[in-house]
């Protein structure tokens, strides 16, 4: 597995934990995993990923400015999309 696919898989797992954390009202834990996902996103070389994955990575930052319910929904959606991108 390439390094970028490994990072995409890690982001997917972090975002899944974010969604579960917000649904369970564990905001502090969810915020920590969201920070981890953003940190991992910054480690990916955007020149090596395809255009759709690049757009997803760029859209990930908007989650930070949403309320907790919207963060949970978007984190779960992005988690699934990144998991699919990692499996391609």
Kindly describe this structure.
The protein has four helices and no strands. With about 90 residues, it is mainly α.
Provide a concise account of the structure shown.
With 88 residues, the chain is mainly α. The chain has four helices and no strands.
Global shape: elongated
Strand content: under 5%
Helix content: over 70%
Low-confidence stretches: none
Structural class: mainly alpha
Q: Please, what is the average pLDDT? A: 92
Order of helices and strands: HHHH
Number of beta strands = 0
Q: Main β-sheet, in a few words?
A: none
What Rg do the Cα atoms give? 12 Å
End-to-end separation: 11 Å
**Total of helices:** 4
Q: Topology of this structure?
A:
Layout lengths: L2 H21 L3 H17 L7 H9 L8 H20 L1
Helix pairs in contact: 1-2, 1-4
Q: Which terms summarize this structure?
A:
88 residues; elongated; mainly alpha; 76% helix
